């Protein structure tokens, strides 16, 4: 899907705050509210916008602990990797999972209420995915920045 200048502006604005009204977005982008609504609908239908969500303040939402985990698997057999990917995607405490290059095969961001919850999750991961060779854990001491915004350049060379 080709994104024009208006689409790119709109994507940056809704990533910043998805609760903005079509009227407010129209003022910022320079289109009519109905054109904004059509574009947003198209961007959702085309899968550019996957979902709208609320970003919570961890301190006010129960103070979860964040764990950054590197996971190594024994063999990179496609069916075993697919099984682990599905397992990770189904876990509510796994916020993000990346298949990566380097020493680790996966890097995970996990939010858990406490270390016991984290420990139980990792024990299940190893038990239900026996091809996981090892994992290393870093505990986040504080959150410096957290987000999912993807910078969209408003102008392109196309």
Automatic annotation (TrEMBL):
Record keyword DNA-binding present: yes
Stored InterPro entries: AsnC-type_HTH_dom, Dimeric_a/b-barrel, Tscrpt_reg_AsnC-like, Tscrpt_reg_AsnC/Lrp_C, WH-like_DNA-bd_sf, WH_DNA-bd_sf
Presence of the UniProt keyword Transcription in the record: yes
Domain of life: Bacteria
Keywords: DNA-binding, Transcription, Transcription regulation
Domain HTH asnC-type: 3-64
Protein name: Lrp/AsnC family transcriptional regulator
């Amino acid at each position: 899907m080709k994104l024009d200048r208006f689409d790119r502006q709109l994507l940056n604005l809704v990533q910043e705050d998805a609760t903005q009204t079509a009227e407010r977005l129209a003022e910022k982008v320079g289109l009519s509210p109905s054109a904004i609504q059509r574009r947003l609908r198209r961007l959702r239908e085309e899968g550019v916008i996957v979902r709208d969500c609320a970003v919570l303040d961890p301190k006010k939402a129960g103070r979860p602990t964040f764990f950054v985990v590197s996971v190594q698997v024994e063999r990179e057999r496609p069916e075993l990797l697919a099984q682990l990917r599905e397992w990770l995607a189904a876990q509510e405490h796994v916020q993000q999972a990346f298949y990566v290059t380097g020493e680790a095969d996966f890097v995970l961001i996990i939010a858990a209420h406490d270390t016991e919850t984290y420990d139980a999750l990792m024990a299940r991961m190893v038990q239900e995915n026996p091809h996981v060779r090892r994992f290393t854990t870093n505990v986040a001491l504080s959150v410096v920045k957290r987000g999912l915004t993807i910078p969209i350049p408003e102008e392109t060379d196309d």
